[in-house]
Write a structure and sequence with these properties.
This protein is mainly alpha-helical. It folds into 2 domains: 1-60, Arc Repressor Mutant, subunit A (Orthogonal Bundle); 66-206, Tetracycline Repressor, domain 2, CATH 1.10.357. It contains 12 helices and no strands. Helix 8 (108-121) crosses helix 9. It is globular, with a radius of gyration of 18 Å. The relative contact order is 0.10.
């Protein structure tokens, strides 16, 4: 048990364990049996929880399938709330992402890879993932606006956040395409390499 988990009240620890059991079991069942072939009833039976408990933790079957994504971005949005807004915003967002990746649980990169592979194979998850990406982008814009106030031009802020999200998506897709080569370190390296390409990309011509 991690120190952070150990410090939580018992009720919160139980809730987190249930949430993790649901997401890990769902990912295993969806991978082994197929996403469409696995029902929520079957998932709840395996984890030994009620559907009511399931819906207290996840809004839908799509949500539990993409839990590794939401784990990352929930933690990232919390980290953005403490950003130092004194320098270039894109650099701050990139450094916050680097820090967040470093704090994810040791098994997160395996779950994230399996989640991305599953999402690429299931049209319903592709659509849900795109919608979640849009929601997260909006939330990130609002979080940064809350930190920066009137100090940042809103058009530039939105463009910067969109560029940040595009760079992350490019890096994560490259990592998934190569089978998660290098695990967490490999993903982090690809993120850094992708951000380093941004100046040249903005001047790219056919």
């Amino acid at each position: 048990m991690s120190d952070a988990l150990r410090d939580l009240p018992l009720r919160e620890r139980k809730k987190l364990r249930t949430r993790r059991a649901l997401s890990e079991t769902a990912l295993r069942l969806f991978t082994e049996r197929g996403y469409d072939a696995t029902t929520l009833d079957e998932l709840c039976d395996v984890v030994e929880v009620s559907k009511r408990t399931f819906f207290r933790n996840y809004r839908s079957k799509e949500d539990v399938a993409l839990a590794a994504d939401s784990d990352l971005w929930s933690a990232y949005l919390d980290d953005v709330a403490t950003l130092d807004m004194g320098g270039p915003l894109l650099d701050a967002l990139r450094m916050a992402l680097h820090a967040t990746l470093g704090t994810m649980d040791p098994d997160w990169d395996r779950r994230f890879l399996a989640t991305r592979e599953l999402a690429e194979a299931v049209p319903a998850l592709q659509a849900h993932s795109l919608g979640y990406c849009q929601d997260t982008t909006r939330a990130l814009i609002e979080r940064v606006k809350g930190r920066a106030g009137d100090r940042v031009n809103e058009v530039r802020l939105r463009l910067t956040v969109e560029i940040f999200v595009a760079a992350w998506r490019t890096a994560s897709l490259r990592w998934t395409a190569c089978g998660g080569n290098g695990d967490r370190d490999g993903l982090t390296k690809l993120v850094e390499e992708t951000f380093a390409e941004l100046p040249a990309a903005l001047d790219c011509s056919p």
